[in-house]
Amino acid sequence: MFWQMNTDLFNTHEPILLQTLPIPGPHSVGVCHFLATDTFRKHQQEGFPRRFMVTAFYPCRAPETADNDALRARFVDILEPVLNEALLFLTEGLAPSTRQELIGEVVSIGLRAYRSATPLRSSAPYPALIYYPAGGCNRFGNVDICEGLASQGYIVLAMDGPHDADLVVFPDGQLSKGPLSGDYISPGVGDVGFLVRNFDLIGQQGTLAGMIDTGRVGIFGHSRGGYIANISAFLYDEIAAAVSIDSFLWGYMTKGTGLERHPAAFQKRVVSTAKPILRLCGRPVGSDPQQEAQFCLKRDGAEFMGDFTVVALPGWQHGEFTTTPWLCGRGTALLENLQKRDTDKASVLLDILTAFFDQQLRAERGKDDALDACIRRQPSLGLAHQPART
User: Fold this and answer.
1) What pTM does this model have?
2) How far apart are CA 221 and CA 242, in angstroms?
3) Alpha helices per DSSP H over the chain
4) Which residues does residue 343 pair with via DSSP β-bridges, in sequence order?
5) Distance between CA atoms of 194 and 184, rounded to whole angstroms?
6) DSSP code string of 329-346
7) How many CA atoms lie within 13 A of 316 on its CB side?
8) Reported confidence tier of residue 294, pLDDT bands at 50, 70, 90
9) Could you tell me the sign of the dihedral formed by the alpha carbons of 366, 241, 150, 2, in that order?
10) Which of helix, strand or coil describes residue 290?
11) Exposed (0-12), middle (13-18) or buried (19+): which is 317, by Cβ within 10 Å?
């Protein structure tokens, strides 16, 4: 079942000193939060039931008020209703003065999205995109990308699994503290499955009622989230397309791609199912982008029957694909992540994802060469494509 959190709980009124990227699309963006409870699954570290958090970004009507900033969401909203306890945990080990300054900065970070905003139903239903973050990061680790996609007319559902992030806060105030131990693939894949199987339930009540087009669903993820996205796309028929962002292809570092370490039935499904996949790869500084894209395509493409595309991004470090990492990490790591802000990379990543999903989920809106045109605008990137095999 899914339970929507009451945004009246979020009562931070500090001035907004730093915001995510301006949204590029025609729509304002609303945000709401859900607790998902799967009573039939057991969490390997916490027992029954399996619980995880979801934040939904959606097209909305702009609030009619002179003080819109008062209604904007905050990064720390995902730490409610135990904000103080959560911040003390995340800043543990820092000198008192540094800790106080860091907490003040984190609390002042605002989103472009509005809390409790009225959904824009005139163009509904909208295609849905699931976002699964990198290991150690939370569901706001690419929040500017989620906001940007929602402004273009998508429902974006960003997920947090317990222990996957350094800290996940549940509505009852329980803190789930990382790291994740044991199986680091199946729990997240199971959460994605639970989410897509219950889209109809989410779309029947609350803020997202009537908003989700369950026939047009995509998924994207970074690092750990990237291979969870790939695996989920081939396990669940509801998912039509996937983007794997700078990750092991199938979750294992091996001489192959890692597919050989999965059950035989899953391997057979992968090599016989046509799903469009986009793979983004950070490559060495100074390397030729087109040669790198062709190299990655040749290395990985044999396992895919569907449309398979590789974008090579020379000079991109692994962590730079998490474009808003301000709540990722603890202590010194959190302090370092707060200084990271590369708006150029965030804009490039958003352009690529928008072009791909427009092409795959909105054929009527985009041309067949939408992604190719996007990459041509970025000469530092390389693109290689393998069409679906019949």
Assistant:
1) 0.95
2) 8
3) 83-90, 96-107, 143-151, 186-197, 199-202, 224-235, 264-272, 289-300, 332-338, 343-361, 370-376
4) none
5) 17
6) SSTHHHHHHHT---HHHH
7) 28
8) very high
9) positive
10) helix
11) exposed
**Radius of gyration over alpha carbons of the chain, in Å?**
20
Asked whether the beta carbons of 277 and 255 are under 8 A apart, the reply is no
Give the bridge partners for 167, in sequence order: 177
C-alpha 314: how far from its chain's center? 22
| Dihedral pair phi/psi, residue 176, rounded to 5° | -105, 110
Indicate the CATH number of 2-386 among 3.90.226.10, 3.40.50.150, 3.40.50.1980, 3.40.50.1820: 3.40.50.1820
Closest Cα to residue 145, out of 221, 74, 80, 72? 221
pLDDT of residue 227: 96
Q: At 268, is the pLDDT very low, low, confident or very high (cuts 50, 70, 90)?
A: very high
Domain boundaries, the chain: 2-386
- pLDDT of 342 reads 78
- pLDDT above 70: residue 12: no
Tokens of 153: 């007319």
